[in-house]
Amino acid sequence: MSRRSCSDGEKGFTLIEALVALAIIAAVLSSIGAVIGTTVKGTRSIDQRLALTGAAETLLAALPARNLLKPGRQSGELAGHRWRIDVAPLNMAVPDGAQTSPFVPLAVNMRMQAPGGPAIQVVTVRIVPKLAE
User: Any residues with CB less than 8 A from the CB of 55 and at least 6 apart, and which?
Assistant: First the structure.
């Protein structure tokens, strides 16, 4: 910044120069604050998503063994996350030779929702032994 001489011979900044400098500093600080706020919000979102994914993995790992898995709906809560699992036979075109297979595919559809609102849905297929007819 420039220094100017005042009418009485003293050197210094004018009031306008000081106000402009303060305005520039305020603008820079508000920009930095906005970046920090966005970063904190993004980090919180990632933490929530990781917690949700971890709870979903725990729930899927706790599914009954293949020979005990039955079609139906289950729901509950795990670590504050609400969940629902639907197990149903997978409807698909079956080749002629596969109808004699001792196994049947089951679609496992899990939906889990965090307390704050975000949700995750996982769909997988489990091959289970056919029930004796």
Answer: 78, 79, 81, 83, 112
